[in-house]
Design brief:
5-stranded parallel β-sheet; 5 strands
């Protein structure tokens, strides 16, 4: 039995070439007996398809806050309430900025804000080039999301 057995992870993909690595991450989470619900930004769909992620997880992928599959039309509420954790991987500089600013203009950032933060941790796995990582704006935004309660995991360059 693993520490992830029976846990429900919302795996959020923001745009970046590191999306190709998330297929393996999803496979490993499932191998560890977690269930994985993928939510993708529009930018992420430019790097990996929802069909790929659905095939790996066995669950439909969400990408729009206007998704009519949810009976109450509140995917951002339902997805975040069902989660044991929200993991954003890869987490782009743009997505970190969205979180730092409290923007909620698409499903993934909306569910990050709507999650019950006292019981659903937000885990960020930044992935970007070295220059973007070192930029003062990115570092300011990282400090803000951490102050807001997010856990920032090691960066992938």
């Amino acid at each position: 039995m693993t520490a992830l057995a029976g846990k429900h992870i919302v795996l959020g993909l923001s745009g970046g070439v590191a999306c190709y690595k998330v297929a393996e991450l999803a496979r490993l989470l499932i191998k560890a007996q977690a269930t994985v619900q993928v939510v993708m930004t529009e930018a992420a769909e430019q790097f990996i398809t929802p069909v790929t992620m659905q095939a790996l997880t066995g669950r439909p992928v969400y990408g729009s806050q206007w998704d009519a599959r949810e009976a109450n039309n509140m995917a951002h509420i339902n997805l975040s309430r069902e989660a044991d954790a929200v993991l954003i991987a890869p987490c782009s500089a743009d997505f970190i900025a969205r979180l730092a600013q409290g923007r909620a203009d698409e499903l993934l950032s909306l569910l990050c804000l709507a999650r019950p933060s006292e019981r659903v941790p937000l885990l960020l796995a930044p992935a970007m080039n070295r220059e973007m990582w070192a930029h003062p704006a990115t570092q300011r935004n990282l400090a803000q999301v951490q102050a807001d309660g997010a856990t920032v995991l090691g960066v992938g360059h």
